[in-house]
TrEMBL record:
Subunit structure: Monomer.
Entries under Gene3D superfamilies matching the protein: 3.30.300.20, P-loop containing nucleotide triphosphate hydrolases (3.40.50.300)
GO CC annotation: cytosol; plasma membrane
Swiss-Prot/TrEMBL keywords: Cell membrane, Cytoplasm, GTP-binding, Membrane, Nucleotide-binding, Ribosome biogenesis, RNA-binding, rRNA-binding
Residue span of region G5: 153-155
Membrane topology: Peripheral membrane protein
Era-type G domain residues: 7-174
Name used for this protein in its record: GTPase Era
InterPro entries: G_ERA_dom, GTP-bd, GTPase_Era-like, KH_dom-like_a/b, KH_dom_type_2, KH_sf_prok-type, P-loop_NTPase, Small_GTP-bd
Localization, UniProt: Cytoplasm; Cell membrane
PROSITE patterns named among the record's database cross-references: G_ERA, KH_TYPE_2
Organism listed in the record: Facklamia languida CCUG 37842
């Protein structure tokens, strides 16, 4: 039964890579549901985080950073981001206060220009700047686009995120509770586990390796010791990348496994036995059948 006076809606986070969309999502939800790293294009899929309180529920959509695609995977990511601004109740355009406005930011603004819903500017990472710099930054963006609201925040520290949430609840229409109060993400555990493994690869590798990696979780089941046994494969595009991920005497893959095991145990609230393999599949980012296998499907737009 619909709760009288209850408000609910959908809000999309959009922006160029590395502006802090996933960090904001995790801050709002209060736990880690989206992986983070300092590498561009960390988020590849649309991830829905569910924020619920007694009087409202907002489903936030974290999207891949908008960039110029160089392969079929990049094309999938950008189309995913654009599709997520359709049929929602508000859009948050995130920008990085510590970096100058660039062509990528203007590109995002062009994409939201014709929307007939509230479009808010979220100036993130204000913890990295002197507060006297804030007004000139806001002025620059508001001259480019007539935002409905402007929110300077720090997704990392949580500064002013409560104010943003209060205003978003006010902007939402009256509606039903779409998800149970204890559900915080729309993706199954398989997906979250594969993302936590990929996050460890992003932490430890550089150059082309992070962008060439996919993770496939083959199985997850409880064993006799009440541990969750996870069998997963890291896919790369070249033999040299496989060598980097395994490392001398298997040192790198052990570190990835150790870090991922810790994060997966925190997610599942259970002891985990992680069996991790590395496999080469040439040019998987340009093959639609393999993109489908790894969860990057056009029907997800």
């Amino acid at each position: 039964m619909e709760n009288k006076g209850f408000k609910s809606g959908f809000v999309t986070l959009i922006g160029r890579p590395n502006v802090g969309k996933s960090t904001l999502m995790n801050q709002i939800i209060g736990q880690k549901i989206a992986i983070m790293s300092d590498k561009a294009q960390t988020t590849r899929n649309k991830i829905q985080g569910v924020y619920t309180r007694p009087d409202a529920q907002i489903v936030f959509m974290d999207t891949p950073g908008v960039h110029k695609p160089k392969h079929a995977l990049g094309d999938f990511m950008v189309k995913t981001a654009y599709s997520a601004i359709q049929g929602v109740d508000a859009v948050l355009v995130l920008v990085n206060a510590a970096e100058k406005m660039g062509p990528g930011d203007r590109f995002v603004l062009d994409r939201v220009r014709d929307l007939k819903i509230p479009v808010c500017l979220v100036v993130n990472k204000i913890d990295l700047i002197d507060k006297t710099q804030l007004m000139p930054i806001i002025d620059q963006y508001t001259q480019e686009y007539p935002f409905d609201e402007v929110f300077p925040i720090s997704a990392l520290t949580g500064e002013s995120v409560d104010r943003l949430l209060e205003r978003l609840v006010e902007l939402m229409p009256q509606g039903p509770q779409y998800y149970p109060a204890d559900q915080v993400v729309d993706h199954p555990e398989y997906f979250l586990v594969s993302e936590l493994i990929r996050e460890q690869v992003l932490f430890r590798t550089r150059e082309e390796v992070p962008h060439s990696v996919a993770v496939s979780v083959q199985s997850m089941q409880k064993n006799e010791e009440d541990e969750v046994e996870v069998l997963a494969t890291i896919i790369v595009e070249r033999k040299s990348q496989k060598g980097i991920l395994i490392g001398a005497q298997g040192k790198m893959i052990k570190e990835i496994k150790r870090g991922a095991k810790r994060e997966i145990e925190a997610l599942l609230g259970s002891k985990v036995y992680l069996d991790l393999w590395v496999k080469v599949q040439k040019n998987w980012r340009d093959r639609q059948s393999q993109l489908n296998d790894f969860g990057y499907r056009p029907d997800d737009y």
